[in-house]
Amino acid sequence: MTLGAFSVSLSVKDINVSKVFYENLGFKVFAGDLERNYLIMKNGNALIGLFQGMFEDNILTFNPGWDENANTLDAFTDVRDIQKHLKSKEVKFENEAAENSTGPASFVIKDPDGNAILIDQHV
């Protein structure tokens, strides 16, 4: 099972202040829209999403079907197959992908400490 590209999605108070902070650490804007209060920043293979006013807590994010440059992979584990596997392990879901759908879909689970994990497939 391959989860895809990994990033940390941070809930920030002031996206402009956070943007400057992470630029000082060597991150550059990779994607997103400052006007819509979200940016994806990259430093090498490290990805950080900055999100102002979109969710309360920080989230670990995996993108099946993408590499760290948002390139579509030729082969990957579909989000619904990951979900099916986790259900067989009795993992509790916060929300689920429609099992009979195809293409983009997502689900959210929480680890034992309450940290949210978003599996978000865009392809």
Automatic annotation (TrEMBL):
UniProt-listed InterPro entries: Glyas_Bleomycin-R_OHBP_Dase (IPR029068), Glyas_Fos-R_dOase_dom (IPR004360)
Family matches, as Pfam families: Glyoxalase (PF00903)
Domain Glyoxalase/fosfomycin resistance/dioxygenase per the UniProt entry, residue ranges: 8-117
Source organism of the structure: Flavivirga aquimarina
Entry protein name: VOC family protein
Superkingdom to which the source organism belongs: Bacteria
